[in-house]
């Protein structure tokens, strides 16, 4: 169960563990970013670009959906669009 | 504290030192002797032109000293990688400093429009440049702490 505020979560910590307890610095070196960026992504404080997201997935040799998960029910933009569509449907 | 945050703090200290010592130097050596210089456009032109290279050189020297000090204390080299997050934070902080300098520029022009002495305009311009550069570094620290 994820926090109701979380829109995108990630499994990087878990994936690092299964990759032989890869360090944040090692992952940063393999993806061409700083360790601080990996820390920010892991803590959900920064959402990477699509390019970096794919690079992360490629580093762990998994699909993108295994690294990141999207929760539309927590996304205010998604809710707004859904409400708009509902209103339109009623009209 | 991250390396970028430390660099921003060093940069703030550098800016404060440069503007502080430079203002004191100009005031003691020139303005104190002849207050009439305050309304001399050539004097302000020279002051601006000398300040820019002095500020750049001092900032470079301070950053080099910081890198050496950081290497000795933490045994870590300063990373030369600038990733997408660094660029995003840089852009966001530049936007803030841009708006602050624009506001300062408007104030400076406003002072002229209201018939104030030209030195008020020049002082407002220098101050807004200084505040804009400080705001940019403070914004960087905040963004790095928040994530981006």
Helix and strand arrangement:
The complex is a heterodimer of chains A (91) and B (148).
Chain A: E1 8-10, H1 12-18, H2 24-31, H3 35-42, H4 50-60, H5 64-67, E2 68-70, H6 76-90
Antiparallel strand pairs in A: 1-2
Helix pairs in contact in A: 2-3
Chain B: H1 3-31, H2 41-74, H3 84-113, H4 118-146
Helix pairs in contact in B: 1-2, 1-4, 3-4
The number of distinct structural domains of chain B comes to 1
Order of helices and strands of chain A: EHHHHHEH
Give the low-confidence spans of chain B. none
CA radius of gyration of chain B: 18 Å
Q: Identify the CATH architecture of chain A.
A: Orthogonal Bundle
Q: Within the largest sheet of chain A, what's the order of strands?
A: 1-2
The CATH class name of chain A reads Mainly Alpha
Q: According to CATH, what is the topology of chain A?
A: 434 Repressor (Amino-terminal Domain)
Estimate percent helicity of chain A.
55-70%
> Helix share of residues of chain B?
over 70%
């Amino acid at each position: 169960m994820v926090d109701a505020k979380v829109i995108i979560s990630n499994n990087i910590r878990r994936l690092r563990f299964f990759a032989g307890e890869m360090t944040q610095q090692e992952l940063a070196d393999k993806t061409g970013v700083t360790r601080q960026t990996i820390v920010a992504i892991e803590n959900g404080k920064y959402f990477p670009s699509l390019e970096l997201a794919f690079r992360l997935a490629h580093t762990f040799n998994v699909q993108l959906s295994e690294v990141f998960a999207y929760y539309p029910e927590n996304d205010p933009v998604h809710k707004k669009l859904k409400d708009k569509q509902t209103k339109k449907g009623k009209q | 504290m991250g390396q970028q945050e430390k660099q921003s703090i060093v940069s703030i200290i550098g800016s404060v030192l440069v503007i502080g010592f430079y203002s004191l130097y100009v005031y003691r050596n020139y303005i104190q002797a002849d207050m009439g210089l305050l309304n001399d456009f050539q004097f302000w032109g020279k002051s601006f032109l000398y300040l820019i290279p002095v500020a750049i050189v001092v900032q470079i020297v301070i950053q080099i000293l910081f890198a050496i000090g950081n290497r000795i204390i933490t045994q870590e080299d300063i990373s030369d990688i600038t990733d997408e997050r660094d660029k995003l934070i840089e852009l966001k902080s530049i936007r803030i400093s841009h708006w602050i300098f624009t506001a300062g520029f408007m104030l400076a022009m406003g002072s002229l429009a209201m018939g104030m002495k030209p030195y008020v305009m020049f002082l407002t311009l220098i101050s807004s440049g200084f505040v804009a550069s400080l705001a940019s570094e403070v914004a960087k620290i905040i963004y790095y702490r928040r994530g981006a």
